[in-house]
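For the sake of clarity, the format in which proteins appear in this thesis is described at this point. Each number in the token line that follows is a code from a learned vocabulary of backbone shapes. One such record is shown here in full, so that the layout can be seen directly:
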Amino acid sequence: MPLDKNNGALWTLGAAGALAIVGAIASRRGSRSTTQEDYDQAYDYGFSRGYDAAIYQDREDVRLEYERQHGEFPQTFEEWEDAWKEAASEAEQNGRQFTPFEHYAHDYNSAPQEQSENLWEQFNAGVSEGIEQGVRDALSEHGIR
């Protein structure tokens, strides 16, 4: 399912959508090279994971972790933003040990080396941009400016 970035609507992939993409890539991979559609899907999946990791962070947990690390609560927008990004990045990384991610990892790693590196590059770019957008949306939702 594509992400619509033009009108601000964001659709994230559920587990069924993620597995459908994995299946589509895997079913085509054996007989041909990776296509632009595969790279776009890797980016979209990464964006979805990054966005979800950011938007579903609990404000109180972010605040308490920041206090544990810095000895005070986040005071400025930049401190909140940094704390939220760190929490989202950690959550996204932790999720890489579970299905359906392991299917993606296997599929990306099964591609020829250059294509594999490009798939990972697209996926990671999507994760980074998804976290950025998710943090902006989460902070706005919580009234942190």
Summary: The longest helix spans residues 113-141. Helices lie at 15-29, 36-55, 59-70, 77-94, 101-110, 113-141. The chain has one domain: 35-141. Confidence is low (pLDDT under 50) at residues 1-13, 27-31.
